[in-house]
Structure formats: C-alpha cells, structure tokens
Amino acid sequence: MTTVPSTITLPDTLSSWPWPRQVNPHYEEISFESAQWVKSFGLFSPNAQVAFDRCNFGLLAALAYPLLKKEHLRSAADFMAALYCFDEYTDQGDEAFVRQAADAAKDALRNPFKSRPEGEMPIGEVFRQFLARTVPICSESVQQRLVETQERAMDGQVQQCVDRKHDFARNSKDYLAVRLHSSSMLPSYVIMELDIDVPDEVYYHPLLENLRYWGFMLICIDNDIFSYNIERARGQALHNWVTLTALERNVGIQEAVDYLGALHHRTKESFLEATKNLPSWGEPIDSEVRRYIDGIGNWVRANYEWSFESRRYFDTHAAEVRRTLQLTMLPKVVVADSQAHWAPRPGEVIPGLETALNLVPDADYMAVKVAA
C-alpha cells in the first residue's frame, strides 16, 4: 500500500528550454470553428461538453503549430479534438467497445471519402471528416504517415484499456512501448509536415528518430506528472508513469515525481546536444530539417503551456500551481461520467473542491499486479 501525500512539489522542467511560447495568429477563429464542428456530432452529455470546452484543444493546436497556415491549423485543431473524443468516448468502455471504436476510426482513416455505415458509432465519422478535410492540403507521404501512426495509436489505446480492466501495471520499459503510440504523439508530429517537406531517407535517419522519441519522453513526463492528480482521483492512474515509478522503485509519490523530473532533465540534455550535431544533406533539406526539429522542440513547450493555460489538469488553480509548483492532491471520487472530472456523479459538485487549497486525500492506495 502506497500512501499519497496531501501535496506534491512539481519539477520545474522547462525553465531553460530554448523554445519560447508561440501561438498561431489564426487561433481564435479556428478554435471556434473546430469546437463547433465537434459539437455537431453530439458525442457528449452537457457536463461532458463543458469538460471538453474547458480543455481548449484549439489553443493546444495553436501553441503546437504556431506557423501553420489557416487551413492547416484547422486540420490540426480538428485532429487534437478528435484524439480527445476518441480517448474520452472510449474511456469507460470495455475492451470490445474500445476495439469497435478503434476499428471504425481506422477504417474511416483508410477510406476518408466513403460514407460510414448506418448505425455506426459516431467516432468513425469524426475521423473521416478530419482526414477528408486534410487530404487536399497534404502530400501523399504525409497522409500515409498520418494514417499509419494513428492506427498504431488506436491499437495502443486498446491495449491501455485491456491493462486498465485487468488492473495491470506495466514496468516502465513496457509502458513506454505502449505509451509512445497511445499518446498519439507520432501522428501529432506528422501534422507539422503539412507545410514541411522532409524526404523519407532523412525522416527515418536515426538522429531524427531519437529526437522524436526524446521529444515524446519530455512530453510524456510532463503530461503524466500533471495528469496524475486527476487520474488518481478518478481511479485511472495505473496507466501513468508516476504510479508505475512508485511501484517499480518502491518509493512514495513525491520520490517518483522527483525521479521523473531528473529523467526529464537528462533527456532534455540529450535532445539539446543532438541538435548541435546535425548532419548536412544540403539545401533546401537542411532548412526543412531544422524547421522540423524546431517543431518537435516547440511541441514540448506547447504541451507544457497548454497544461497550465487550459483547465484540463489544474482547473482554476493553474496560475497558483505554476507559480508555486505545489499541487494539492484531490480526494478519490467515483466518477460515473468520465468527463466530469470534479464530480462523483454527473452534475454533483463536491463542496469546496473547486476552491479549497488544503484538501487531504484518503490514505489508501489501490493494490495492483505489477509486471515483472
């Protein structure tokens, strides 16, 4: 049994990251259009729709892709929203339901101009419309990479569901093998290529493969630390690197967070050192590679900024948490509607939960099977 402290101290991971915050100038217009597009599918209950709106995925797209043209940014915003829709839509489903949703979405990506079967769950149509809008503004190679990497992402989501349903905790190595895909970071990198041309022989160079992976590691560490509080409160923290580190190393939650903070620092050094020793392929390829690497570096910054600027993880306390790096642990609650992050039942708010800064959680922690 692991005791969870009442507060944890977050690592200051990006204070020296050389990529500054940037936001796409088309943010407000595209964010509104994309949000209205999602609403048109009627995927969410009223409470869940509020949760979606507070996440502000249009802002994430604008931060992650600050240089994209207007039509490209629309595809990026739709993709960020579609990923959330799939994640939340399948969050409470069993393995069969998640597989069905994944199969529908994968088929839609393979056939973006084919009407979806009558009666099919709407997630297929979400991904179909996204790709149908994107195909005319991307190259064939980008379309292929996008489809292939997102198919693997959905397979990772199915595996995550299987692990969750069996209360199965992976070791860190196996977790990262799943998370690399289930996070959808690889297809999110592909979105950068809507206006960047990196030839295949360069795209698959070991250096760029390493930079993609290290960027994923940096984002994963920040994301798992930031999301741990809510995921634990919802009883869904087994697929989180903080939990797995605590179990694997037999340490407390704060020690696990500190360990991941140190790993973030080492990974950051590896990333920055590699950017200083780039091979040359000649122009204009070298300039495109530099833009691509800047895009990965910017994604790391974008994820961090969005985590505090949206209300997905810290709700109304984001500014205070960012200033102090002190995060109060939420009490464990049973959430019937997976998108109602702060309520034990849809529409019921725990008194003081939105504003209290000194909540003390329960002391128990879930017993789990840990992979060898």
From TrEMBL:
Per the entry, which co-factors are needed? Mg(2+)
Q: What domain of life does the native source organism fall in?
A: Eukaryota
- Entries under InterPro entries matching the protein: Isoprenoid_synthase_dom_sf, Terpene_cyclase-like_2
Main enzyme class: lyase
Q: What is its EC number?
A: 4.2.3.-
- One Pfam family recorded for the sequence: Terpene_syn_C_2
- Please give one Gene Ontology molecular function term for this protein: metal ion binding
The record ties this protein, via Gene3D superfamilies, to:
Farnesyl Diphosphate Synthase (1.10.600.10)
Q: Which UniProt keywords apply?
A: Lyase, Magnesium, Metal-binding
Give the stretches traversing the membrane. Answer: none
Q: Name one GO biological process term.
A: isoprenoid biosynthetic process
UniProt lists the family membership as follows: Belongs to the terpene synthase family.
* UniProt-recorded name of the protein: Terpene synthase
State the species of origin: Mycena pura
